[in-house]
Predict the structure.
Amino acid sequence: MKTKDAPKLDAGKVLLEEVTTGGVKTPGKKRSLWRTLTVPLLAVITGLIFGGIFIILTTPEVYQAFGESIGAGLKAAWDAVWTAYVALFTGAIGSPARWVSAIQSGDPLEIRRAFNPFLESLVASTPYIFGGLAVALGFRSGVFNIGVEGQIFIGAIFSAFVGYSITGLPGFIHIPLTFLAGALGGLLWGYIPGWLKAKTGGHEVINTIMMNYIAFRLSDFLLSGPMKAPNQFNPVSPPIQETAMLPRFFGPPIRFHLGFFIALATAYLVYWLLFKTIWGFNLRSVGANLFAARYAGINVTRYIILAMSLSGALAGMAGANEVMGLNHNLAMAFSSGYGFDSIALALLGNNHPLGVVLAALLFGTLRNGATRMQVVAQIPIDIISILQAVILMFIAAPAIIRTIYRLRVSPTETTVVTTGWGR
Amino acid sequence: MEPILELRNITKRFPGVLANDHISLTLNKGEIHALLGENGAGKTTLMNILYGLYQPDEGEIIVRGQKIQVHSPTDAIRAGIGMVHQHFMLVPVFTVAENVMLGEETTKAAGFLDRGAAAKRILDISSQYSLEVDPNAYVKDLPVGVQQRVEIIKLLYRNADILIFDEPTAVLTPQEADKLFEIMESLAKQGKSIIFITHKLREVLDAADRITVIRGGKVIGTTTPAEASENKLAAMMVGREVKLVIEKKEPQVGEVVLNVENLVVANDRKQVAVDQVSFSVCAGEILGVAGVQGNGQTELVEAVTGLRKAISGKIRLVGKDITNSTPREITELGCAHIPEDRQRDGLVLTFPVLENLVLNTYYISPYARGPVIQWDKVIEDSRSLIEQFDIRTPGPYTDVGHLSGGNQQKCIVARELSRPIHLLVASQPTRGLDVGSIEYIHRQILNRRDLGVACLVVSTELAEILQLSDRIAVMYRGKIVAIVDARQATKEFLGLLMAGVPEEEAKAQVGPIETKEVTGRELF
């Protein structure tokens, strides 16, 4: 019997092992965790290298300098990339020199300003965590939820409505109520394609894309009519009640709010659900092998619907988070692609809640840092988008990274072939 | 005499595995050379190298004294090497002639197909080797055995004179298999050379001129049927003594556990696949269901286990009506199911062994407390199951998909037999498994029978049915055409029933059958 010890490429299983062994150390586990992280890490590095090439190619000064001499050209190229990435870093994390001087000055506003970039990155990561969890839960359960963006919108509509229309509630009731309203909206928007898939076989990819369009136009319609703030020129909803706003921890300009911690708690909850409960077992079985799930006595129809609904609910929370923590109202096109990025980051995070959190932090940081890169290094926003896309491309297709760095596929993936079984 | 084909020191490595370790083999003209080995021994890898699907890391292939490079099946065919695959490569809605011509079309002027010329050549080939195939018949109308002959004609049409047969009898009835052996003999007599891949000992002794046994990627030895015996070959294959006959006690038959009455079930194409079937299985006995693949056995098992809806009829398990109950309800009444397609239905290949071992018990005590799964308990029990059922795995966390077929099946057997059951439904329980695993799984099934479990065993392997059953039901075109006492059944008699010959006529053909002892039969 040729079976070799299997380095597991799946973060989920590595963690499952971690949890189930109850702290008993097994040899080779460190290595497998390392293997799990190798590809995403190399993807990011490769993405940054390619991004650097793009920056060089699109900076006019570099061409001019090359006109003078090769040395000057190389220097200009290096300068362009260096400036851009320093700006990206300081925009995302902040500048260490500024932290020191701010603390020395003792001025509270200055301290807040110095640390704001880092906290702002966390703010930007928060909807990514919810969105990534939504996609990851779907993937684990065998449904491909492309409708996260639409579910974010519906979640935002629901929570904005509950947030501004209900008055006189104390915060400790109004906040959870508004947040859950957002989850409910997303749940509804996920339930419909889930039901269609389970009962009629209508493919969820097509249906969730269509549900996205309905959600976008529905929100446009509501904002230009029924939900439009009466004394506003712009199509925005009235501001939500103060009792529905997620509390912020520091004074302006820091916008860091409770949503980040709710997101972390939700990630843990999703992890617990998927890997520690019978519901999670059901969801994962349905996702991994429909036939075996049926054989095992699981009601496959019910769990497909449940998977899409829960996925939608998580996406809806992203919408609620933006309304309650950041914007305090509902505006048109407020999400700007969180839902679609979430698909990529769920893949980057191996569809595991912990991986999703890490990937979301990376995405939030990149997004936040990119703003400063645009201002300081004068890099067009389009190039920043290209940079992000290149990184994503390498992440989403690990085979490219394996080819570039000649990483060996784990031997067990080929063992099955050599046993001559199941050709 | 110079061999027609010679393999010298063929070595093929896959990451972490040495699939072929300096294998050398010679094939003489007009010889039937059997390649015998367990699954995973490296037979298929070797043949795929010969057929150009893999490239060897070391070694050379010599055909008629000339060293050749085989980079693709096209190269192989050019060198006169042809392969009859286990799964046929035929277009069902084409005629025999059209199938044979495919890729090698003879044309008339202006590029029109010359079916007539092809048909004539097919008839010539067919009569030369007594293949008895009508070139104008549609492939979909032909029985499996004849479809296989179409595959052989395809090779002969392309002037192949080295023929590789990959597990050719897996899909045949015993009579069809005998006919195939006659054809192989006739081919060999007329100068064709044949490599015959199998893991069935009986066939090798019947049909081969020489036998080469492979184990763990190495040639263990080459022998002839005259020198070898089943026991010797089995020991060479497995590397230890294997008991070919399993001791079997007299059945202690108890009350009826499973009762099926006038059951009608449709297949996926909405045709009636199980037609008014009635039978019952009692505690402590094994009812074997024999039949050629596709005669309704699959649908019958799925209806009994709740995976398929019955159109009409009644199924009762321990007195309770379970017609169209859910799989979970049936499982909870004490039904264990070893499914036919273990990788599709029986296992989640991307789940670790431990999760697969609790695939239908994870939600109840002691594995779940409320909604929370008690992984500590699961781990503890899966470790002991792995030991008890001798599942060869690096550990409970290894994905089941990484295990060999035999060990995957052991996972299912361990899961299904480790809980209290009244009924065991085993469908093709040893398909594709090696001798050692077959022995083990048969022991387990017999052991449950002796403990008073009612067993329904469905198999297309007659040897397996004869080995295990106390009574044998034969299915043909959705009906149970006969239920016979296993002591009065022979391979020939059952083979006729499986081919649709009525019971009385079959009895007349095989003559009187003596009632035999129950104490086990040959396994192969």
About this structure: Chain B has three domains: 5-238, 243-334+420-524, 348-419.
